[in-house]
Every structure is written in C-alpha cells, then in structure tokens.
Amino acid sequence: MTATATEDIRIHAIKAENYMRTRLVELKFDEDENFVEICGNNGEGKSSVLSAIMEALAGRQGVEIPIHKGETRGEVAVETDRFIVKRIFTEKGDRLECHTLDGVKISSPQKMLSEIFSSISFDPEAFSRMKGKQQVTTLMQFLGLDFAELDAKRKELYDERTYVGRQAEDLRGKAANMPFHEGLPSQPESTASYSEELRNIRECAHKHSQFKNEVQNKEYELEQLRARAIKAVDNIERLKKELEEAEEVLDVLNEKGAETKSEFEALQRELAAMPEPDFEREKQILRIIQDSDDIAVKINENMHRLSAAREADEMSTRYEEMTAKLEEIDRKKRELIAAKEMPVAGLSFDPEGEELLFNYLPLSQASSAERIKVSTLMGFALKPKCKLLLIHNGSLLDNNSRATIARLATENGGLVISEVAGTDSKMGIVIENGEVAEDRRNWDRN
Predict the structure, then answer these.
(1) pTM strictly above 0.70
(2) How far apart are CA 218 and CA 220, in angstroms?
(3) Contacts for 329-337 with beta carbons within 8 Å, 24 or more apart?
(4) What value does the mean pLDDT of the chain take?
C-alpha cells in the first residue's frame, strides 16, 4: 500500500531525541488505541513531545533552538502504517527524510505531508473555548474560504454608509430645527420700485424744506425791515435834523422792502404751488421695505431648510444603495459558505458570518459537553486522511469531556494525544527530565 492511498493513515509510533526539552522519548500506539495523555510537570518536556509530532508532520514550527541544550544533533520521527517520516536537526540546519515501510524514498515529502496533515494544528479543546468570531475564522481557513477581499469591500462600504447615515441624520436634525414659514413665495419679492418712490419722496421733502427755510428767512428779514421803518417814522419829529438822511434811508428801505416783499410773495406762491411731502406714504414704504426684508429672511430660511432636507434625502438614498451593496456581499458570502459541505451535521454560520451555529443556536452558547463534541467531530472531519488530533491544554478538560473525546475518537477510528499538566493521570505517559518515566497504559507494547 502506498502513501497516496485513500484509506485512513494511522500513527504507530513517535520518537523525539534531543529535541527541545526531550532527551529520548519513544512511544508506540496500538491499532485500537484512541486516546492518549502525555503527562508531566511544567518544564519536563511533555509539550516538546507534541511539538515534535508537529515538526515531523506539518513542517517547521518556528522553534529557534530545536536541539536540546548541550547537544549538536536532534531528531523527531513518526511512523505510520504507510511510511516513516523523520526530521533531523544539526547546527547547520535541518533536513526531512521520508520513505515507505519497505524503504522506498518518497519524493517531495513535504508536499505529501502537507496534503495529509494540513489540519493537524486544529486543537478541539482550544477551538471549543474560542469566541464566536474566532471559531468562524478558524473553520473558514480549514474549509479554504477566503473572504478577505469581500470583507475589505464590505468594511469600506459599511464605514462609508455609517458616515452617510450620520450625515443624513445631522442634516435632518438641522433641517428640523430651522424655522419654516408657511404661505410665503419660494423667492423674495423685489423692492426696487418702492426704493425709487421713496427716493422721490425724500427729494421732494428736502427741496420743500429748503424753500420753507428761505421763506422763513425772508419773512424774518421783512419783519425786521418793517420794524426799522416804524422806528424811523416815529423818530421823524425827533430827528428832523436828520430828516433828509432818514428820508433817504427810508427811500432805500422802502425800495428794499418792496423788493424783499416781491421776493417773499414769489416764494410764498412757489411754496404754495409745491406739493406737500407725503410723510404717511413714506412711513408706509418704510414698513413695506422692512416687511419685505423680513419676508426675504424667512424665505431664505425656508430655502436653507428645504436644501438641507433634500441633501438628507440624497444621503438616505446613498445609504440605501450602500445597504443593498452590503446585502449583495453578504449574499455572495452565504452562497460560498452554502457551497461548502460542513464538517459536522447541524453546523452552520449565522447570516452575518460572526458566529458558528449548531442546530441553529450559537455554538459559543452551547454546553461545554456539546462544544467539545462538535469541536472533536470537526477535527476528525477536517483530517480525512489522518484522524490525528493534538490537544495542548488537556488539563482544562473535565472527566466528562475526556470521556466524550475518547468515545468520539473510538467511533471515528481516530487518535487523540492530549497534553496534561501534572502526573495524576491513571492512564497517561509520564514525562520527566525529557524521558518517559512511566507508561501507565494497560496494553502490551513489546
């Protein structure tokens, strides 16, 4: 049987020598063995055993110093029912060797191993404790679903839609708080004709005032002349000696008086002929202009409010368009998800892709027993060629969870290797100082 056969591949043995904290750990697994616990206190090398399996089957794990301190060479090896894979570490680097059980070298071994053990990093215990979004991301990676481009486009649209929605709400709020006056025209009425009429009235009033002042001045001047003439007449007798001079003065005054009187009468006639300024009309026009200005302000306020409302409507339209685009992206994601066969019956994604559902309820809200069950079944379903699961924090599992995992491993023909802190496990393999101190399993491994 070749390494490319379709039957399940079974792990028979592992070896870790001078790798990380291990000195020499050699373990064999029976065909019917399905659940194994690697036990030990912290720093004794139990984690190095699981890391050694990962190094051999899944490629380099980013360990900076893989060789045990003080040694110059390290080795990890895994024997399956089809082939043996070995990774050797030296101070110069590492190399991968892989051959069939009858010694035939396998070409491109890492490519073959990657195809078989692509999901070996899936830890059911860790998966059961993940938040909903982390579970979705992890499962999508194993299913080969990459929504990076769609998610980036969705986030861009979502952020823009959020901004547009806020702008629309702000504009609607501003529009709602703006004054609005019913029964007004859409545009302010022109007051140019009133301004011309007002200017004519004011010019007339100014001219009328000037003439009136001139009339008053001439009237005052005439009164003064009359007073002086009366005084002159009264003083004729007393001033006989000055009669000639007074008469001359009188003649002059009479002549001047006649001229002034003529001017006065002319001004009176001109004033009488002038139209009286319409001060009441002036007041009316001022009120009209003031009212017109007030109306223009109100109309302007109406226009601003209507403009804000229109802009808010435009923003709302953009918001709806973006919502439709988001829904289209979500639809495409749902179609891609629907095209993938779920690894466990009853498992699905929520419509937003934010949560894993099990029997239509969030997996994160299920009981710990259900989460462990689903996670373990997923692990086996994701590894169709080699049903090997590694649990790095087996100490977090209670007895019921351990029993569930062991039962599911047996039912699915898989092998679960769990790392447990401490040495209390009754059926575990105890690691001390990088070696197997005690193997408490109850079957003959010789």
Answers:
(1) no
(2) 5
(3) 329/150, 329/153, 329/154, 329/157, 330/154, 332/150, 333/147, 333/150, 336/145, 336/147, 337/145
(4) 82
pLDDT beyond 50 at 3: no
Please say whether the beta carbons of 299 and 184 come within 8 A: yes
Long-range contacts of range 315-320, CB-CB < 8 Å, 24 or more positions apart?
315/164, 315/165, 315/167, 315/168, 315/171, 316/168, 318/161, 318/164, 319/161, 319/164, 319/165, 319/168
Strand (E) or helix (H) holding 88: strand 83-90
Distance CA 380, CA 60 (A): 23
Q: Is the pLDDT of residue 153 over 80?
A: yes
Element (H, E) at 79: strand 73-80
Whether the Cβ atoms of residue 25 and residue 16 lie closer than 8 Å to each other? yes
Percent helix / strand / coil, the chain, rounded to 5: 55, 15, 30
Phi-psi group of 35: left, alpha or beta (phi > 0 → left; psi -120 to 50 → alpha; rest → beta): beta
Which percentage of the chain shows pLDDT scores above 90? 14
Closest CA to 263 of 225, 232, 233: 225
Residues 57 and 81 sit within 8 Å (Cβ to Cβ): no
